[in-house]
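Subject: Protein record for review, amino acid sequence with backbone structure tokens
Why sent: The fold of this protein is of interest and is recorded here as tokens.
Notation: Tokens come from a learned vocabulary of local backbone shapes, not from coordinates.
Attached in line: The record itself begins immediately under this heading.
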Amino acid sequence: MSDEQNIVYDDDIMITMRGVSDSVGLPYTVNPMELVDRQSLVEIREGVPGPTGPDGDPAWPWLWQGDIADTAALFALDPTTADARKAWRVVSENRVYYWTGLEFIAFDEAFGAPGRKGAPTVLTGAGIAGPQGSDASATIIGTAPHQQLQITFPRGQTGEIGPPGAAGRIQDASDVQVDESNPLGQDYVLAWDSTLGKFRPVPNPAPAGPWAIAGNQFTGGTNIADTSRVVATVTIPAQPVPWRPRVEGGLSVQTHVSTIGAARCDIEVRIGEPDGVLVGYGYTLAADNMIRTPISPKFEYALTPESTLAVIPANQTTTLYVVVRRIGTANFSVVTNGAQLVVHAETV
């Protein structure tokens, strides 16, 4: 036998392979092949079924639009491609019409057959007290699968007053507002807020302090020729609320004059710097006498409860300056014995 192949047809052909069932169960010994012009058909016995393939993508959900009377009313909607996947029930035909975006597809006898089993109802219960002497009743309310069994029980007779309960917290009272916008703080008190209609925590409006300095914190001197001199400072820590200083004290100052009234010295207490806002004042005699001059509150302008004059903002540390200011040309001396300054922070 020769191994040479005999070429009987030298041209490109289209081969189609078709599976055929084996009704007998015997293996094929010959697979038939038909050749017509340039097309070939080969029949091959089908094998055993293969495993189930993977699940495909889920179908697009319908956008249910409800009932519509008839097809005339449906077509009058004139849907566009933007309405794709919408579906209507045409009542006159008992059909579902599905819009693909290009055309309607009708599903006959879409209603009347049993639907798929719905989700089981999760039934919860609630008890309600009815009027005294009324009948007990039970009602299921809501829609599946979230329904509630509501049972009404007749209200009984009013019992005796029980023992007093434990003391509650003030902040839990219904007319008290304590939250992130109205937090509690050290030494806070409750104040009525007309906007909230409740009490809320506020910093204690009572004056804070006192802060005081005495002789050792003052700087004295003799025969001073300066126009003004800072003789003491006192630093007040930041307060949680706006406040205004109230100062009291005294300092001994002597003006070296040869005649009464030739010159004098004023004692000033100012905020933030030697020329800051004036909050305290002492008026010395225009005479060559060593006299302890009282220091009292004083403001350079008219003051009302609503005024912002000399108000120090909340959370701001402040320094007060005690200044001896000369009026005239005579020298002066400052004696620190018995000197003192007391400061209170009055809430604004």
In short: The radius of gyration is 51 Å. The longest helix spans residues 71-75. The helical segments are 71-75. The CA atoms of residues 91 and 306 lie 75 Å apart.
